[in-house]
Amino acid sequence: MTRKKPGKIKTRKPAGRIEVRKSGVHGRGVYATKPISKGARIIEYTGKRVLWEEVPNDLNDPHTFLFGLDNGKDVIDPTTGGNEARWINHSCDPNCEAIEENGRVFIYALRNLRPGEELFYDYALQVDEPITSEVAEESRCFCRTSRCRGTMLEAKS
Ligand SMILES: C[S@@+](CC[C@H](N)C(=O)[O-])C[C@H]1O[C@@H](n2cnc3c(N)ncnc32)[C@H](O)[C@@H]1O
Ligand SMILES: [Zn+2]
């Protein structure tokens, strides 16, 4: 009888469906590298969970990687434990959506995605204070879709 030596058994990591690279919209973005079906859960928005009140004011600016949770108190900070999801840009006509499930956030495809397409979700940024011209300027959207509302701030209902 032969036995495999410990450490010789290898597991195969599935090839990723997304990659991070330079975006035409802003900085880096996330792109599909393989077809992704409508409704697929693509990736979790990971990071350290902190309280909004612990976030230094200089980090709480419109160029943000922070993802606020529905309870209004917690936020995911991907600078610790973050993954590719942190690079997904905003669009006013997105092909993905971010859904919170039991305090975790996942990115889902809103439609079938082709390899080479950039992934976007609607940030719908919320600002507690009155929207100053500075905040409005810093929140300008460059998604260039026909549905662009000109801002990454949440749509007025
Ligand atoms: C989580 S980062 C996304 C990655 C970003 N592209 C980068 O390279 O840092 C979020 C920031 O990207 C910028 N951004 C994302 N989508 C944008 C858009 N449609 N228009 C303008 N700026 C955008 C904003 O500054 C936003 O706060
Ligand atoms: Zn837009």
Concise account of the structure shown:
This protein is mainly beta and 157 residues long.
Overall geometry:
globular
As a percent range, the share of strand residues is 25-35%
| Order of strands, widest sheet | 3-9-8
What share of the residues lie within helices?
A: under 10%
Assembly status? single chain
- Per CATH, the architecture is Beta Complex
Structural class: mainly beta
CATH homology superfamily: SET domain
Mean pLDDT: 88
Rounded to an integer, what's the Rg over CA atoms? 18 Å
Q: How far apart lie the N and C ends?
A: 71 Å
Task: Say which molecules are bound, naming each kind only once.
Answer: S-adenosylmethionine, zinc ion
CATH first level:
Mainly Beta
Low-confidence stretches: 1-7
Number of strands: 10
Number of domains: 1
CATH topology: Beta-clip-like
Largest sheet: 3 strands, antiparallel
Write structural notes for this entry.
A three-stranded antiparallel beta sheet has the order 3-9-8, with no helix packed on it. Strands 4-6-5 form a three-stranded antiparallel beta sheet, with no helix packed on it. The protein has a two-stranded antiparallel sheet with strand order 1-2. It has one helix and ten strands. Helix content is 4%, strand content 25%. The chain has one domain: Beta Complex (Beta-clip-like). It starts with 17 loop residues before the first strand and ends in a 19-residue tail after the last helix. The protein has one helix spanning 133-138, and strands at residues 18-22, 28-32, 41-44, 48-51, 67-68, 74-77, 89-90, 96-101, 104-109, 120-121. Strand 1 (18-22) and strand 2 form a beta hairpin. It is mostly beta strands and 157 residues long. The structure holds S-adenosylmethionine and zinc ion.
